[in-house]
Amino acid sequence: MLKNGNEVHLTPKAFDLLLLLVNEAPRVVRKDEVHQRLWSGTFVSDATLVGLVKEVRRALDDRKANAPLIRTAHGVGYAFAGDLQRVIAPAPRVSRWIVAGTRRIALADGENLIGRAPASTVLLDAAGISRRHARILVDATQAVLEDLGSKNGTMMNDAPVSSRVTLHDGDRIQIGTIVIVYHASASGLSTETIVRSAT
Questions:
Q1: With contact defined as beta carbons under 8 Å apart, do 175 and 124 qualify?
Q2: Is 5 left (phi over 0), alpha (psi -120 to 50) or beta?
């Protein structure tokens, strides 16, 4: 734990207590709830809890009687009374790509066209594949597969695609006789070269 840029050490249970109080702030956490959350299924005396509260107060240099960081609600429990600034961490960026044979094709945000049209993101030049056969729509939260009224249809995991369907890592998409595999990973795309057109 850091306080004013300096590292402060707490025992694991004291840290758990502080985390519980901060997460529940400004609510008073009852003693029985603290016992249940920190020592589930084990009997621990109130003296042990009081000792943990003292350890947390020492670590926080909590000495102001009129404005304590850890407030005692006598006979009830404890609450964190300090100022909190809640920060929502951004969701990890998800990389999405298609594997078609030996090719790995990165999918960009927005429309990714699949078909025989030269401008296709996933160019599949084979019999039975329409120029604008299907598309994968990508946004920050998901990727969706849609057939574009192709003559021979689109399959996902051996089921016909009749409306927009959400893709998941490892889904198999069949376009004509060609099977491509969709992948998604928050850890990113492999560092192998990405080829965006058929050769």
A1: yes
A2: left
Q: Which of 178, 171, 162 is nearest to 115 (CA)?
A: 178
Q: CA torsion sign, 51 to 6 to 66 to 29?
A: negative
Query: Could you count the other beta carbons within 10 Å of the beta carbon of residue 92?
Result: 10
The answer to whether the predicted template modeling score (pTM) of the entire model surpasses 0.85 is no
- Distance CA(123)–CA(126), nearest Å, equals 9
Residue pair 110/138 in contact (Cβ under 8 Å)? The answer is: yes
- Can you give the pLDDT at residue 6? 65
pLDDT of residue 106: 94
Q: Closest by alpha carbon to 53, among 14, 3, 10, 8?
A: 14
Q: SS3 of 137, please?
A: strand
Under-50 pLDDT residues of the chain:
189-199
Tell me how far apart the terminal alpha carbons of the chain are, to the nearest angstrom.
Answer: 55
Q: What is the pLDDT of residue 162?
A: 93
